[in-house]
Amino acid sequence: MPRKCFNCHSPNHLSYNCSKIKKDSEPATSSNSEVQSYFVVLQKGLQLRDIPIGEKTISALIDTCSTVSLIHEDVSTKIVNQQKLSKKYNALSGTGKSHVLTKGSFEHDFVLDEDHYSLTWYIVPKLYLNFEVI
What is the pTM of this model? Predict the structure, then answer.
């Protein structure tokens, strides 16, 4: 399945290069000349979409640059048989040297805007995820 922009559906680029979404960016000040931080705010706010997972519809934060798909542990218990989860735990690391140990994972296929997706969802403890899924 060819990849395409989540915002405008063009097959020629991905959403982080989409010219149809305007981004406001403001450099943060830093005393280190080698580090430059930017705070980026989408004018239209966060890209939340309802996606079907199992027999439920879940509100998802769409992050097209993410390398993993995350699901809140409370949501996962409602849509997936916990006996069918991969018990392989993964350590996810992010900014600020933060680390989160996943509570397993599962595979799931779904359709969104007539496009088919097959993802591995990593279950994240409720303290570390403010959205149902990302």
Answer: 0.62
